[in-house]
Write a structure and sequence with these properties.
The structure is a homodimer. Chain A is of the alpha/beta class. The first copy, chain A, folds into 2 domains: 11-180, 3-Layer(aba) Sandwich (Rossmann fold), CATH 3.40.50; 186-389, Dehydroquinate synthase-like, alpha domain (Up-down Bundle). Chain A has helices at residues 22-28, 42-45, 48-58, 75-88, 99-111, 119-122, 186-204, 212-234, 239-251, 266-278, 282-297, 302-311, 322-339, 346-349, 356-363, 378-389, and strands spanning 4-14, 33-38, 62-66, 92-97, 134-138, 150-155, 160-165, 173-176. In chain A, strand 6 (150-155) and strand 7 form a beta hairpin. In chain A, helix 7 (186-204) runs parallel beside helix 9 (239-251), helix 8 (212-234) runs antiparallel to helix 9 and helix 10 packs across helix 11. The mean pLDDT of chain A is 96.
Chain lengths: 393, 393
């Protein structure tokens, strides 16, 4: 196990009806003038936005609002948000939505205090030194942004997706009411499940030894997802399934599963190019890329893949030929994703074979290598895209 | 899943050599005048205390010290500590030791600001309103106090053990270096393992439904302990085993495994009377009480006990007679504890059959009932003691 620091000070407010307490928590964390940041009309239509506003009013808090966050959140809205914050003297950002909305809120929170173009923070040309506190009312279990220190933004003009990491943008509180996810369509529920599982798997594939505790914790969350995701897709208003998934999504990405071990994140890096370009849901892109990545790197860690197959997907261990078990696990994972209604190859995403070179180039690995579990070159990434192109169950 | 709040803002500083950074963390959390609180001579002999002092000096921090904490920490030392703090204007308590030392530090931290007798806080006659910040340098993986909001103190004159819970006494940081546990004798290592597993099991036995995620997380930690504890007992300087156990001990008790579910805590309550009276190690008392408690309540939750048996102890499920599997799991647990070198019956602890009525009475359940998973009366507790009296593997 490697040395590590773990600090997860977000206050989680979990359960039925908890969004009514939002105002109290904003106040607790020093908010007096609030920017409510949200996405599409669903938070409006469902009445959630009204509930949240009422709870702010009950605490005597001022608020203004900025809607319009879309999946793969754009830099353009971030500029708009920082301007509002400066103009209105905002001291707290409240994200009401999913990961995109939270990521956009984090970008605004950091951008407000940054004198240059906030995009420089995402290009890692500069570091976040100060940020407004961010609180969240989560409506989609997927990105884990409600408990994480990261944010991903897309530069609209270039279709360029980049991420930033800082303890300063970790939400101070997150309201998680599983009921708020009842209205998610099955496809979005499935995309969220793929994203959650990818967050675990990117940590699971490691070269660090003697990490039994985090291995087992990772498997615990994966097993939970294998059980609960199909239920939520089938029965959108099943509270138990929604609750287990929602908490799994937070645990999957607050790094409690990834401490003290090297991590990979190549599937995410590859996928970001996909969703940056085709504007597909991140989870759908991951459903295509993850199993393809697994097939490509499997030979470099057969026993770890066999472990996943046996412990998570209930495959029988083939002691004579562990690679058979390893492959069976990958197949089971792809079948599982397909069963949730997710795409499993690039064609289904609308990508074509001839797009592959441009996708590889855009990732910018160039002549270098990238990744934690297995270091990939540009040509390795091209191979992964090729596996992903026409993969079937 | 029940509604819950989860807030675990302790900063964990994990790994080899991290105790050298103690001063930096004390300073980060506002400490200028520090009380170093420690236990027996082992922190002195090992040179740990010197290392910690040097790191405080490097940051230019003033410190004074109070040693002498013993297992089952006493109220008397707490009075002494609060007096020192008041007299010396202490603004930070640094616990260098195990759970007893941390619990004593928490009591001092709260006691400093309490105008009456601090023991009233433990009798729940009053609430903690303010406390000094506490930091820890952990030397024993067991109690989980380094990441928890609770503290247990024994009133020496009455042999009365009582606990208190408050977010205000949760450590602001905890330094966890597994190497510091290398010097623990096998018996103490085993006691720690029993305590860690008990913290998980008290949360595992629940009547709350649809708690897949926390069930699986609990099992993950238990499986880890089943693998790693025997290694640490056999090879005290095995870093991997010590590291896994140390982090398992923290995860087991920061309540990340217990959110959204009813918990039990009867085994702990029963055991506190034992270690309050005979001054046996808490973990040794738990090794005797937990399996006896399990046998007594098993019939009230056969399938949950069978689940534990299958998922954690690798028992084969008996589909015709799940109670056989359930019992096999309890037997496996007791055998596991015995294999670690722990006592498994009351006689080994030095208790006698004729002591039982007094132990039951002291717990003070009277005509009432206590516990979460199965509500126990005084006569139920007496039955558990009787099972524990001569239990064998």
């Amino acid at each position: 196990m490697d040395n590590f620091d773990f600090y997860s000070p977000t206050e989680f407010v979990f359960g039925r009806g908890r969004e009514k307490e939002t105002g109290r928590y904003v106040k607790k964390y020093g908010g007096r003038r609030v920017l409510i940041h949200y996405g599409s009309g669903s938070a409006v239509k469902s009445g959630l936005l009204e509930t949240v506003k009422r709870s702010l009013e009950e605490e005597g808090l001022y608020y203004t609002e900025l809607g319009g966050v879309k999946p793969n959140p754009r830099d353009t809205l971030v500029y708009e948000g920082t301007e509002i914050c400066r103009r209105e003297g905002i001291d707290f950002i409240l994200a009401v939505g999913g990961g995109s909305c939270i990521d956009s809120s984090k970008a605004i929170a950091a951008g407000v205090f940054y004198e240059g173009d906030f995009w420089e923070l995402y290009l890692r040309k500069s570091e976040i030194k100060k940020a407004l506190p961010v609180g969240t009312v989560l409506t989609i279990a997927a990105a884990g942004s409600e408990g994480s220190s990261s944010s991903v933004i897309t530069k609209e003009s270039e279709g360029l997706k980049r991420s930033v990491n800082s303890a300063l943008i970790r939400p101070v509180f997150s309201v998680l009411n599983p009921e708020l996810t009842f209205s998610l369509p099955p496809y979005q529920t499935a995309c969220g499940a793929a994203d959650i599982m990818a967050h675990v798997l990117e940590r699971y594939f490691t070269n660090t030894e003697e990490v039994e505790i985090t291995d087992r914790l990772c498997e615990a969350v994966l097993i939970t997802m294998v059980k609960e995701a199909p239920i939520a897709v089938r029965e959108p208003e099943n509270y138990g399934a929604r609750a287990n998934i929602m908490w799994a999504g937070t645990v999957a990405h607050n790094n409690s599963l990834g401490v003290g071990r090297s991590q990979d994140w190549n599937s995410h890096a590859i996928e970001h190019e996909l969703s940056g370009r085709y504007d597909v849901a991140h989870g759908a892109g991951l459903a295509v890329i993850m199993p393809a990545w697994m097939e490509f790197v499997m030979k470099r860690g057969v026993m770890r893949f066999a472990q996943l197959a046996v412990r998570v997907f209930g495959c029988e261990m083939n002691f004579e030929a562990p690679e058979v078990t390893a492959k069976a696990g990958i197949d089971a994972f792809r079948k599982f994703l397909h069963g949730l209604g997710l795409p499993i190859n690039l064609l289904e995403l609308g990508a074509k074979e001839e797009d592959i070179p441009a996708l590889v180039e855009k990732q910018g690995v160039g002549d270098g290598k990238t990744g934690g579990f297995v270091q990939l070159s540009s040509s390795d990434i091209e191979e992964i895209y090729k596996i992903a192109l026409k993969a079937e169950v």
